[in-house]
Amino acid sequence: MPASAKILQHAYGFDDVSIAPGEVTINPDMVDVSVDFSGVKLKTPIIASAMDAVVDTSFAVDIHKFGGLGVLNLDGIQCRFEDTNAIYKEIAACPAKKATSLMQKIYSEPIKTVLISKRVEEIKNKNATAAVSFVPQNAKRHAPLAVEAGADIVVVQGTVITARHTSRSLRGLILSELVKDLRVPVIVGNTVSYEVTKELMEQGIHGILVGVGPGSVCTSREVLGIGVPQITATLECAAGRDAYYKETGRYVPIVTDGGIRTGGDVCKSFAAGADAVMIGSPFAKCEEAPAYGFHWGMATWHPELPRGTRIKLNTEYTLNKLLNGPSSKTDGTLNLIGALKVCMGYVGATNLREMHSAKMYYAPAVKTEGKIYQMTGLSS
User: Which of these is catalytic: 79, 94, 218, 343?
Assistant: First the structure.
């Protein structure tokens, strides 16, 4: 191979690694799993994705009761239609072959700015934390309306976000100005690199979303070929966060966003350096979710280049059972907080920042070693 040839780096996903037990163990009931976003403290470090099939205003209130956070997508159905339930029913009833076309039609309906304030107020009137999401091109215009109505956190989210974006159009979104103007915590994503994480934090933002394309209904990796497996992405961004903290003394949480299916994935995210995790599909299966057991990606409806799909997940459990159990399954898909606390106990971590020091191994055989009966379908 010539010296000028591109050298590919190894990258690791959840199934490639394992966490080593610590030299000291503690009782799970002694661990603290809270996280703080510049004064907005979550007792549960699990955030429901800003996806229309996951979070409506009722779901945001419900997850608040369990200490978590639901991010409401104010670019989506919630601010395009007054009667959102009718839209959810229409999407659920649509044949698979016509789903994307229907989505494109539904999401072509203009955003009604009057609904931005209304949705925020529906959450705040129930004494819940209101976190709302906008794409970068709408954030400057619409986020102030949400904050004026009482929004506690603003999320600016795109497939890929950087602090240095070049465009031929008029002056775009300047994150440092947005942070200054809104005066509430601003979380930005998504990214997967050390350099971009540091540069975004230098803009004054209060949280970073980590991950490009790992979600179950996202097809960015197939359509665009872009993405980095989540363990490597989290390690990279955690290193950027730690370097920024060392330089400035300001600690900015990072959130592993997407691809998380089980309690084991949650635990590995924190061991890799996450301060919180963002989850979509598991929440879409909850009785409290609005989409009747269906789920779809944030760019499924893109008018020119759809990068998502609609899938039928069915409704399987309550939100409380997903987060806190008790679980009747052995596959790790329920009682995510219980799994995290037990893992932290085995590692000897009393809080999430101590969990970052857990030793990890590259272990591609971790899910198959000794599991012959499970792999042949003989487990029950």
Answer: 218
Report the chain's mean pLDDT, rounded to a whole number: 92
- Residues 371-375: what's their mean pLDDT? 71
Q: What is the average per-residue pLDDT within 136-163? A: 93
* Cα gap 317→321, rounded to integer Å: 6
Whether residue 218 lies in the annotated active site: yes
Q: What confidence tens digit (pLDDT) does each residue in 37-86 have?
A: 999 999 999 999 999 999 999 999 999 999 999 999 999 999 999 999 99
Q: Is the distance from CB of 141 to CB of 79 less than 8 angstroms?
A: no
Give dist(CA 333, CA 76) in Å, integer: 28
DSSP annotation string for 273-323: T-SEEEE-HHHHTBTT-SSTTEEE-TTTT-SSS--B-EEE----B-HHHHH
Q: 194 with 235: CB under 8 angstroms?
A: no
What is the pLDDT confidence band of residue 169, given thresholds at 50, 70 and 90?
low
Q: Is the pLDDT of residue 278 over 60?
A: yes
Q: Which CATH class is domain 39-338?
A: alpha beta
